[in-house]
UniProtKB/TrEMBL annotation:
Domain of life: Eukaryota
Keyword Signal annotated: no
Keywords: Hydrolase
Residue positions of the active site: 196, 350, 380
Molecular-function annotations in GO: carboxylic ester hydrolase activity
Annotated Alpha/beta hydrolase fold-3 domain residues: 118-265, 313-383
Gene3D superfamilies in the cross-refs: alpha/beta hydrolase
The protein, known as: ADCL4 protein
Family named by the database record: Belongs to the 'GDXG' lipolytic enzyme family.
Pfam families assigned: Abhydrolase_3 (PF07859)
GO terms under cellular component: membrane
Length: 404
């Protein structure tokens, strides 16, 4: 107990010191790089959330520099420290599906028929996020839709590189699909859902399962501001929202590289588009291009980007970026045509907005029914902030209501 209190005091002291140093400018973080546009929902709250997140990262860096723990470990710890306890409306249990940790949420109210089953993959750039960070969201989905929700605690980067997260999500889903009778779930009503990086994983798993005749066909996929490609970080939404919290353009590229191979040394090439040979880039322009984005999304300060070629050395390090299991927007039409009915949520002030718009077009072009909901005042991460105590956002609640 004495050790616990010593660590607690040390943490509080370092956190306060880090916050003071950040505010005083003694630690180099330029808030001028961030921008909260006038149209964002509840901008003051967003700025407060952003400052809290940056302060946490600063404290993590201090702790890393003095040899206590890594910055990534500290941020993960801070994200997962809350426990919610019992829920009067849900049975909640931690299990293992195919050696993957999962948390299952089952409504207590009796059901006259088999329920929907929702496989949920959390966001966090493949580096952060956990069963705990999305606990409130999963509880809400289970309660409000009266569905059985399975949240998947997949392995994180950079310790576990691509395709570890994808494989965990796929294997956990297959296990669930083969054992749905144990959870009172209708095999014809299984849905895959995820936010941000989890949306990427949901799209990739959906594509893999689309041609599996030995498993039930997925009823739907729900993609919440998903990241679906890493070829073009100069699409209109990347240019317009590059400094809008909670996901900066540079961070999006950094997270992809952490997931890909744990090496961010080629981040500048990725940002400028010189990480993929020109002939390959041009081949994918039919799917990944500003030309496929409706004009109304280009009026807010978009400038066409000049295509660049790349060196063989750079491409050899990042060439797996072109694999559909990492970038689902690059899947062939024959796969896309088999996908289930889809729900895509996008936010206006989100660098990943255009990934969702491009995938929407691909699905519709291939005859897949799409329900699209766009939060005009939304920002990246807003859904998971819908009920975060006093820092909740009304647009997040609207988005969740539409998902349910």
């Amino acid at each position: 107990m004495a050790v616990f209190y010593t660590l607690l005091v040390l943490f509080l002291a370092v956190f306060v010191a880090g916050f003071i140093l950040l505010v005083m400018g003694a630690i180099n973080f330029d808030f001028s790089n961030s921008e909260i546009p006038p149209g964002v929902n509840q901008p003051v709250k967003l700025r407060i959330v952003h400052i809290i997140l940056i302060s946490t990262a600063v404290v993590g860096k201090i702790l890393e520099n003095i040899g206590i723990c890594s910055q990534v470990s500290f941020v993960r710890y801070m994200q997962s420290r809350k426990t919610l306890g019992l829920d009067p409306k849900l049975f909640i249990k931690d299990l293992w599906f195919a050696k993957v940790p999962v948390r299952i949420y089952q409504p207590k109210v009796p059901s006259a028929s088999q329920r929907r089953g929702v496989m949920f993959f959390h966001g966090g750039g493949w580096v952060f996020g956990s069963l705990e960070t999305h606990e409130k969201l999963c509880r809400s989905i289970a309660r409000e839709s009266e569905s059985v929700v399975v949240s998947v605690g997949y392995r994180l980067a950079p310790e576990h590189k691509y395709p570890a997260a994808y494989e965990d999500c796929l294997n956990a889903t297959i296990h669930f699909m083969k054992n749905v009778e144990h959870y009172g779930v209708d095999p014809a009503r299984i849905i895959i859902c995820g936010d941000s990086a989890g949306g990427n994983l949901a799209a990739a798993v959906s594509q893999t399962l689309a041609s599996r005749s030995d498993l039930p066909r997925l009823r739907a996929q729900i993609l919440i501001y998903p990241g679906l490609q890493a070829l073009d970080f100069n699409l209109p939404s990347y240019q317009q929202n590059q400094g809008v919290p909670l996901l900066f353009r540079e961070c999006a590229a950094f997270y992809v590289l952490q997931y890909l191979n744990g090496d961010a040394s080629n981040m500048q090439e990725v940002l400028e588009g010189s990480h993929i040979p020109l002939d390959i880039t041009l081949n994918y322009r039919k799917w990944v291009s500003p030309d496929n984005i409706p004009d109304k999304f280009k009026v807010r300060g978009y400038k066409p980007h000049v295509l660049l070629d790349c060196t063989t050395e750079v491409y050899e390090k990042v060439k797996r970026i072109c694999e559909p299991n990492l970038c689902p927007l690059l899947a062939e039409d024959a796969i896309v045509q088999q996908l289930p009915e889809s729900f895509i949520l996008t936010c206006e002030y989100d660098v990943l907005r255009d990934d969702g718009l491009l995938y929407k077009k691909r699905l519709e072009d291939n005859g897949v029914r799409v329900t699209w909901y766009h939060l005009e005042d939304g920002f990246h991460g807003v859904i998971n902030s819908f009920n975060s105590d006093w820092l909740s956002f009304s647009s997040g609640k609207r988005g969740l209501d539409n998902i349910v």
